[in-house]
Amino acid sequence: MKKTTAGIHHITAIVGNPQENVDFYADVLGLRLVKKTVNFDDPGTYHLYFGNEGGQPGTIITFFPWDGAQKGRIGSGQVGTTTFVAPEESLNFWEKRLANFSVKVSKETRFNEEFIQFKDPHGLHLEIVARKEGANSKWDKNSISPDKAIKGFGGAVLNTATPYKTANLLEHVMGMEKVGQEAEYLRFQSYGNLGNILDINLAASPRGIMGVGTVHHIAFRASDFNDHKEWQTHLDEIGFYPTDVKDRDYFEAIYFREQGGLLFEIATDPPGFTRDESFTELGEELKLPKWLESKRSQIEDLLTPFEN
């Protein structure tokens, strides 16, 4: 069976205080908080989703805010850098905006593209690249116009203990095209127009330690539920032995650990975030899966309030 993913569905990271998390991603980066729910496997913790105006696949960065949790270490077996993409000719805007919020930036060039790099308040490594492809975001809050606003993901940089095995996975299992190698990076590209480029860092790094400021997992797109089942069969036949299908309310998910140590997920594009909120009300109320509704009061008592 041959399978090909359109690219990244979402990236999930561990952070600290939820108010600091919301302030940075909504106020500084201008993303929309499209869903406020809980970690289904740890309901005493928020699961916050940010993206474009509707939280379309390829735009969604999600967080488990564990206030006071141990600081992690970025290293092999993790996404090293999460890449956002903005419209062409917008990097100067972003460099100035980040400076206005006292965010330190640096620059790197990879594959003839310029990236501005910075960290979020909890140490997560981020960067912004400007590209033509991908629809502009229509979420125009916080004085960021659509011709400057972050569209979604440009991709990610992967740190792996076995870079060439991870490369083989991306090309021959995930169906991505190898673009080439430049210095210490291998580049792969999928057919989607957002979240479509992955760079593998060939430089050795210590094993990553999960904690605040690190990416928990990276998820790739399945177009629908039938495609998702095919991915499960495909991965099982190759020997990656994915999990059973998990119902995450806004998508269905399977997980597997690749040979370089990264936790990969395959997530369905449907049903999306308007299944339990209208488009205009996305992210306003705490949403719980049906099986947790009876425990709402206990869960709300455990969660740290924040304002969006």
TrEMBL record:
Keyword check for Protein biosynthesis, yes or no.
Answer: no
State the name under which the record lists this protein.
Ring-cleaving dioxygenase
Q: Report the source organism.
A: Halobacillus amylolyticus
Q: Where is the VOC domain?
A: 7-131, 152-269
Source organism superkingdom: Bacteria
Report whether Oxidoreductase shows up as a keyword of the record.
yes
One of the entry's Gene Ontology molecular-function terms is: dioxygenase activity
InterPro entries given in the database record: Extradiol_RC_dioxygenase, Glyas_Bleomycin-R_OHBP_Dase, Glyas_Fos-R_dOase_dom, VOC_core
